[in-house]
Fold this sequence. Notes:
The structure holds two protein chains of two kinds.
Chain A: H1 2-21, E1 23-27, E2 35-40, E3 44-49, E4 57-62, E5 69-71, H2 74-82, E6 89-92, H3 101-108, E7 113-114, H4 123-128, E8 133-136, H5 146-151, E9 155-158, H6 167-171, H7 174-180, H8 184-201, E10 210-213, E11 215-217, E12 220-224, H9 229-236, E13 240-241, E14 251-255, H10 256-262, E15 266-270, H11 277-283, H12 291-295, E16 297-300, H13 305-311, H14 316-328, E17 339-340
Parallel strand pairs in A: 5-6, 5-8, 6-7, 8-9, 10-13, 10-15, 15-16
Antiparallel strand pairs in A: 1-2, 2-3, 3-4, 11-12, 12-14, 16-17
Helix pairs in contact in A: 2-13, 7-8, 8-14
Chain B: H1 3-26, H2 34-42, H3 49-83, H4 95-108, H5 112-141, H6 145-169, H7 172-182, H8 191-210, H9 212-218, H10 222-227, H11 232-254, H12 260-272, H13 277-302, H14 310-330
Helix pairs in contact in B: 1-13, 2-3, 3-8, 3-11, 3-12, 3-13, 4-5, 4-6, 4-7, 5-11, 8-11, 12-13, 12-14
Amino acid sequence: MVVLLLCLASCSNQEKQSQQTKSTGVNICRYSKYLGVFKTKNGYLIRIQHPDNQKKRFQFYVSNAAQHLAVLSSTHIGMLSALNEEKRIAAITDIRYVYSPLVKKRFKQKHMVALQNEQTMSVDQLLRSKSEYVVYSAFSGSFSQEERLEKLGIHCIPNFDWREQTALGRAEWLLLFGVLSAKVPEAVELFKSIEIAYERAKKENVNSKEMISGNVTGDFWYAPAGQSFMSELFKNSGLNYIYHGTKGTGSLAYSMEKVMKDGSNVKIWLNPGFSSKNEIVQVNPKAKYMPFFKEARIFCYTHDGNKFWEMSTLRPDWLLEDLAQIAAGKTTKNLHFYKEVK
Amino acid sequence: MKDWTLKWMFICLLCFLPLAMYLHLISGQIELSFASYLDSILNFDSKNTSQVLVREFRVPRLLMAMMAGAGLSLSGMFMQTLFKNPLAGPYVLGINSGASLLIALSLMTGVHFFQSNFGLIGTALIGAFAAGLLMMLIAQRLKSQITLLLVGLMFGSFTSAIVSILESFAGAESLKSYTMWSMGSLQQVEFGQLGIILVIFALGIVASFLLVKPLNMLVIGEKSAALLGLPIKATRMFVLLLTALFAGLITAFCGPIAFVGIAIPNLSRILFQTTNHRYLIIGNILIGAIFLLLTDAFIQVLEGHISIPLNALTSIIGAPFVVFLLIRKLR
């Protein structure tokens, strides 16, 4: 009799739980390749697909807002800031890479801790922060602390926004933070406005001026490949990127000789990684022999790198506006992220 | 090995060197005419891309590959003879560590004096020579070579610990500059800098031949050499100075290049089977230069398909060879 009662109770609990987590079946994400957000009766079901392993899928149910979040990448801070939910941030990696004034202020007031590095972070510090969730980027392929943290009752959520192949796909990860802070309607609304602004900023015609991106690291010039999201952004902003026709979604690694030859007509050089010509030459003395070093207008975001890394994923519309302005050769005083390198 | 056999081997290597140079020159991704090579030297036009490619990219890269290969091999040979240890290399003196430390200090602490007046290469050069000088001062007070070896290794660990601490406090920009320098490259040297590098390198080669007799005597052991009248301390200082000169020069201009300094001197000994340093010096210069020329040419050929840093490729080739040496020694 007791066993029967226990069985009935268990069945009823399972049914109740399954009703709660049963999704409506509609994924509210439209651009993201790896994130799925599904509405359930009392919350949201999150599905995250690992970009390199089809069999690896993360799935969890969120019904209440997280009070304390550990966010291990700048883009996560940017997305929470956009939702005015900085107060939920209890742990970050390094305050030196933070742009948000409010997060900086709260850090000073000791409302959050710095965990330093994703792979070697201090579990003690994390426990001190009382974080319920850790949102990580897994730049090195995996998150070594995951199993141990799950045992401690801290849920680990991978954020693969950086692996998305479209600018709007990246920005759509905002919805994950909307779920975690119980602000899904606001996140959806904000994303819609970004989407509209992005579509509006798109240019149909490509400028005739040739453009190059990247710089030398070691012996190679690294530049976005033709099918990468950056290349897509360049095209959509009207920039005539010289490697737009190449294959691949990651980076190209070319010799300086090749870049020198290919870039003989380049009039715009983007993202050299430094904020002055002097710095560029200091690290790579041969840069001055590139024909575009003297003849092209050079633009970069490094004068305020933290702002770029924190906001550019969420605001591809701003990025597009900047690039379109650069492509058109208009005044570049009011750019969101970029500044001319002199 | 008989003298005539050695001479034939050297003739073969001497014939192979121009071939390796030619292969290195033509392995770039852009095809250039012979006239471009001639004009870039005799009738240079700075607006002609092909001539700039030859003068500022290919020629400095070719000469640096030869000097780096030869210089690192020679400094490795000096260290191995001095310490009587086939696994000693130029970096046991902490030359690389000294250069890295000063570069890290100048980039990450905002001490702009080094950057604005000397540039990164100048900073690395000062660091490398300061480390060499420090080790020489310590060497004067030590009797045992093994202790000096250990001091060198400890110095390396100490400096990398400081660099790690500096890295953890550094800003993103300075961290990026430091990482880029530490990746190393044969392409950093400009045509205008080649003159001074060649002069220093040539002086080092001449000085190396002056050391032939003392080095040959060191092979029989320091005590025996001292009994034969060799001024041990002065010899040791001279050897250390030359090692610091070669390794410092190359580290400053090219960044760290692993295993050449250990593998090539051992390969020379195995090939020539001699302890006569006259032959070993020539052998190391030729094999070192050819090795790095071919390695770098291979990297250039692969450039369109895969990007391999020089340091990684020398390690891939050098590390198994060092393991082979270890196994051979343990037997």
